[in-house]
Amino acid sequence: MVLCATSTVVARELLGPSLGFRGQRRKRFRQSSVQPPGQEERWPRSPCDSLSQHSLCLILPHTSAAPSSLSRLSPPVSFAISASLARQRAPRLQVPNRDFSPQSSFDFCSLGDILNPGPAFWILRELHLDEKEADALLLAHPELELTAQESLRDHVLTLKSLGISDSALRRIVVRRPDVLSATEFGPFLDFVLAKLKGIKREKLERILATIHSEFLEGIIAGATLLLDHGFPGEHLGHVFNHVNIRKVFRERPLRDLEEMIFYLKRFGWPKWVLSRPMILNLDLHGQLIPRVEFFIELGGGDEAAGAALISKLPALLTYAADRFRSHLEFWRSVGLTDEELFKVALVYPNIFSVSKEQKLKPRIEFLRQCGMSAEDIFKFLVKAPLFMSLSFEKNLSKKLSFLVKIGHRHQTKELAWAFGAATRTSCENMQRVIEVLLSYGLSFEDILAMSKKHHQVLQYNHKSLEKKMEFLIEDMERDVSEILNFPAFLGYNLDDRIKRRYEIKRKIRGKGMSLNKLLSVSTERF
């Protein structure tokens, strides 16, 4: 007696419950009744090979009990007694006359040989799954065969249109086969095409491979909520690239996300999130609010002032409030007031991101050794805050050595101020500035004197400085020594300040005029 079924689903219904059929290709599964040792029952080769390869064949014991056994198979699986076996000239099988039961013996043809592969199989093969992998995936996920071919094909084409490569798509399908069959993926992929044009391919692949289909609707709802509250749609992909999708859109209820949006609207929505999307990862009450309140308190309770500071560097909100309080205590121990620290932070918000132990403490100690008071340190930080964060090995050590070589003495305020000015330029530019000044006849002693009198002289761009020196000597017909008396001349804009004022005054008073009086007076007085 031969039973035929033309579906993998039917195969699972028929073979799975009683025989543990797993669909491994070209492997025979056999369950035999217990036999005495050495008397194992051997069945003849199954005649399945002589049947059509598009049928699943099960050879049942030739007994009147077999039909009653079929009634125990789970509906809606139905079978037809195949007459094709009668038309084959296969030899008659001599099989034991016993009831059909899980203890009976069976021989099965391999799945790939006897099933007629449906559209799902060939689509999987197009995704570079071999036959064994495709068979195993279809048996583990029969819903793929129940999905319309057009739907499967549309999902594949849409995924490829989003920039997902064949190899990546293969990995995604193996890990999450429902990406081809689940109805939730259709609307999500449409949303990605319409609203998430800036999403990175790697991020999209991670979402598809790790987020269960039942949560995709929540992701769409959360993203739509951001847009409804005025978040610019062209930057939505940027947010998806940087936030924790699971934390922001899956685990957090929509009402909590909306509560965070309303809170941010008091200060910097959507600017803060545009600058630092990871702010959305934060817990509103446990993380975001305490951090914002710290800067408001540091600004004297002024919400606008605190928000202005955060707006300069929204990334500050990624640090814990305990870190901010620890830094505040350190600066208080240095002698700075909360108001002074707030002013420094407005100039350089990263002052709170610098490591206290590795950078802040040793560098403040250096300034103290140079004879600086708390007031001096405050002024120094306002003018040269980068001193606190630049790498010592790659940057500061080279500049310090350079300043000492031109004549600055260790542990002096002049060295500290020159050091601060040097943080705003590169070592290469400092070298070029020295070369330009030397080319006009100045000595190292002259350059040192200029540096002490006007600390910024070494930070000026060497190309701009050379043009000013050329104008001073050739057009204004001045002696280079005048630079020693007024080195700030090199800091003024050549076209808008120096040339313009010189031409006006030259017509009135001629060429003999003080550089200091020419340039240092305010525009109103001039």
UniProtKB/TrEMBL annotation:
- Entry keywords, A to Z: Transcription, Transcription regulation, Transcription termination, Transit peptide
Entry coiled-coil feature ranges: none
Q: Per its UniProt record, what SMART domains does this chain match?
A: Mterf
- Give yes or no: UniProt keyword Cytoplasm: no
Q: GO molecular function of the protein, one example? A: nucleic acid binding
| Residue segments, region Disordered | 26-46
Which domain of life, per UniProt?
A: Eukaryota
Q: Name one Pfam family in it.
A: mTERF
**Annotated PANTHER family:** CGI-12 PROTEIN-RELATED, TRANSCRIPTION TERMINATION FACTOR MTERF8, CHLOROPLASTIC
Q: What is this protein called?
A: Uncharacterized protein
